[in-house]
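Contributing: when you submit paired examples, paste them exactly as shown. First protein:
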Amino acid sequence: MSDRRVLLVRGNREFLLEPGETLESDLGVLELPEDVEPGTTVETHLGEPFEVRRLRGTDLFDHLERTGAPMMPRDVGLVVGHTGLAAGDSVLDAGTGTGVLAAYLGRLGAEVTTYERDPEFAEVARANMDLAGVTDRVEVRTGDLLEALDDIEKTFDLLTLDTADAAAVVERAPDLLEPGGFVATYTPFVESARDCVEAAREAGLSSVESLETIQREMEFDDRGSRPSTAGVGHTGYLTFARFTPRLE
C-alpha cells in the first residue's frame, strides 16, 4: 500500500498522520515515530496519550476527501452481500465521486475500473485511492462510461453504477458482464430505480430486484428502548440484476 498514514485516536478525536509527521494540538506536540506500529500508544510532550490505529474501511469513510454525497457503508455492504463479490473479481464502476465504493471493493481484493466525468473529482478520487492503499487495484478514469462502452473489450464480474444515465448502461449489461455476473445501480430517486428495473428486464437479465435502503439506530436509556428519531434513515435505492445467458 502506498499510503502509510495512521489514525491517532483519543476519545472522539481523531488525527490522520503519516509516520514522521508532527501533530500540534491543544493537547501538546507529538512527533510520530517513523517506526510507529498500530496498536501502540504515543504521547504528546505534555504526556497526553493517543492510540495508534491502522485505517480500516469505516475510518476511510470519515477521512476521504468529499466531492459530493458518498455511498454509505451500509449500501456498500448490500452491494457486496447481494453480488457475492470476492477477491480477484473484476468490477466496472461509473460515477466514482469520492470513491467510497471503489475503495471498499479494492480493499476486498477486487480489480476495479471506475469512470468519473468531472476531471477535478477524478483527481480527488485518485488521491483517495492512494489513502485507501488500493492504487494497484483501482484505476480511476476520467470520462463518461456510456461514451466509452464501445472501447471496452473485456467483460466483468460486477457492474456498479451511480449515475443519472444508469439505465442506459444497464441496457448494455449483457455485453459487459461475465455469465453469472451482476449489475448493481444506486439511485437517489425511485423513478430512476424503475428505469433501471425496466432496462434490466428489456436486456433479458434475471433476478431483478430493487430495494430501498433504510436503517434506524436504536436508543437505550432508563426510560426504555426505541428507534432514534435523529438522522436520516433512508439513503437511496439499490437495484440488482444478473446476467444468465439462456441455453440454446
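Second protein:
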Amino acid sequence: MILTDARQRVVSYLRISVTDRCNLRCLYCSAQEQAFIPHPEILRYEELLEVIALARSLSIGKVRFTGGEPFARRGFPEFVAEVLARFPDLDARVTTNATLIGPHLAFLRGQGLSRLNISLDTLDPATFARVTGRDLFPQVWENIQAALDLGFRVKINAVAMKGVNDGELGAFLDLARSRPLDVRFIEFMPMGGSDWSPEAVWTAGEILEAAQKLADLAPLPRNSADQGPAQVYSIAGGQGRFGLISPLTNHFCGTCNRLRLTADGHLRTCLFSDKVYRLKGILRHPRLGAEQLRKVLLLAGARKPLGHEILEKRARGRGVCGTSMSAIGG
C-alpha cells in the first residue's frame, strides 16, 4: 500500500528524531533552556525498528535520523548499522552537527551509510561559538574533511540569518567550489522557543541575488529524491553545488512528502503544526500491534495539512507550532 493524503501527495519520507538532547544551544533551535524528555519516555531502538518496518510496508523508502544531536544518544551508530542491515533497500541518512561523529565515521561508512547532512551556519569560529554556545568549530571542520575523505556525500545546511551569517555568503560559495559537497541556505523559520524575528529573515530571493554577483550559478532540474525542497544550482568551475530552501517566501507544501517522528513517539505531519499522533502507547500496549500502528499511520498521512496555510494563520495572530526545533527533530 502507498501512503497518500487527501491532496494525493505521496508520503515517502520519514524523519526520525532519536533524541531531543543536543550538546549545542543554537539560538534558532532552542534559545531557552528546555526540560529534556526523561529517558524512559524516549522510544527504544527496538520500537523504532518496528516503526521503520511498518513504514517500509507503506512504501516509505527514505528515512533520516536526526536529534537533537543523534550522536548524543548512546548506541546510535550501532542502531544505524542494524537499520542498514535489516532494510538494505532503504535510503537511510543522518543529520548531525558533526561535533561527535568523528570516531564513528569509518564504522558507519563501512556499514553502508553514504549520506550526511551537517548543520553548520558559519565558517567563522567566533561566530560559531556565539551561535551555538560552544567553541567546537575545529572539531566540526575536521569531521567534515574526514567524511569527504571517506567518500560520504555531504550537504551543509546553514540557517540564513541577517546580522549573523549574511556576510559569509562568499565563503560558503568558495567552500562549494573547492569541495564536492552541497551548501544549502534555509530561511529562518518561526519555530517555538527560537529567538526569531522578521528582521532576522534573510530571504532566498535576497540570497540568490547576492550569490549571483559572486558566482556563475545555473539552476539544476529538480530531483525530489535527492534535492528535496531545495532549488539547487551548479557553480561554474566548482566541485560542489549551492542550494536554497524557502519555506517562508516560496513554500513547497504541494510536493511535501514527509512525516516526522519525535523522540518520545509523537508523529507529526507538518513542521508548522502541533497536531500529533501518539505512537508510543500503541508500541508499548500488550494487546495493540502492527495493525493498529498501521491504521494510525494511514490516518495521519490522510490528514496531512498544508503548512503554508498554517503560516498564514500565524501572520494573522492565530499562532502555530509552539514546539522547539530541537524537540521536533528538524
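If you have annotations for the second protein, write them as plain sentences, like these:
The first helix runs from residue 45 to 57.
The chain is about 30% helix and 20% strand.
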